[in-house]
Amino acid sequence: MASSARKRWTKVDGVLLLDKPSGLSSNAALQRARRVLQAEKGGHTGTLDPLASGLLPLCFGEATKFAQFLLDADKAYRATVRFGIATDTLDAEGQVVGTQPVTLDETQVRALLPGLTGPQLQTPPAHAALKFRGRAYYDYARAGEDIPRQPRAITVHALSLVGWQAPDALIDVTCSKGTYVRVLAADLGARAGCGAHLAALRRLRTGGFDVADAITLEALETLPPGQAAGHLLPVHTLLAGLPRAELDEVAAAAFLQGRAVAVPGAIDGPHGVFLHGRVLGVADVAGGLAQPRRTVAAPASVGEAA
Fold it and tell me: Does the fold of domain 75-206 match that of domain 10-72+209-236?
């Protein structure tokens, strides 16, 4: 039985844009998609809380080596902020810790938003998956233990009010990596003087990827056998934001062996490295030399077309 179970896993390379449903953890969504694809290796690119829905790019096989580029990318969300109710987790999954009447109107809500845009320091919430001394923040919070939570530099590029039906504000958020939208919700409530929490959240974009191009988990699981792989994007889509360095076969072989290679005329900085349309990896370029940072597994022939 164990042998047959192992045989069903195959080498799958690519990126799946998944529209994660609310109520499911990112890891649970990953494992369900992985079973459909029968993929040996997979990972997600930035966790969505179970409460949240929307775009969850999943990386399989060689794509997992470049997931960091999506982890580091800007994100866009649509958030429902409910004023007048504060919770201990800052979102709808927590316990109510305070209620106040809401006397805001749309103009007042809109006026709050500019004060929370731009570069800023944000203190992560107590109920977070970040680690302190090997344990998640939320473990300490559930045990009633206070721990130091260091503010982190983030940037909120844009906040816009999409709709207002008291006590709920529908807000579009574009922000840097590491931004907690539920902290923004709580900060809005504090500025309004009545408290607030994040009632719902949907991720719309990650880097250059959009939820409009994603497939739902339900749709993925109803596909006929073998068709799910047709929804995978090629590995090189993860590197779309980087300049490209094209190598010849001799340089490509050296690069895949971990050696720096010449890339005359290339600007300094990270580059996607390619041979005949096949992605070879990512390099840090300085002074015309490309030093490998991450590389794919070397094919039998590096000259094989993608």
Answer: yes
Is the distance from CB of 175 to CB of 72 less than 8 angstroms?
Answer: no
Contact 24, 44 (CB under 8 A): no
CATH number attached to the domain at 242-295: 2.30.130.10
The verdict on whether 146 is a catalytic residue reads: no
Report the DSSP beta bridge partners of residue 190: none
Q: Which of 13, 49, 168, 187 is catalytic?
A: 49
CA dihedral 25, 31, 36, 39 (to 10 degrees): 140
What 3-state DSSP class applies to 202? strand
pLDDT digits (tens, 9 = 90+) for 64-100: 999 988 888 999 999 999 999 999 999 999 999 999 9
Torsion over CA: 226, 227, 228, 229 (sign): positive
What CATH architecture does domain 10-72+209-236 belong to?
2-Layer Sandwich (3.30)
Model's pTM, two decimal places? 0.89
pLDDT in tens, 239-289: 988 999 999 999 999 999 999 999 999 999 999 999 998 999 999 999 999
Nearest by Cα to 69 from 39, 98, 103, 46: 46
Q: Which helix (H) or strand (E) holds 37?
A: helix 26-37
The 3-state DSSP class for residue 305 equals coil
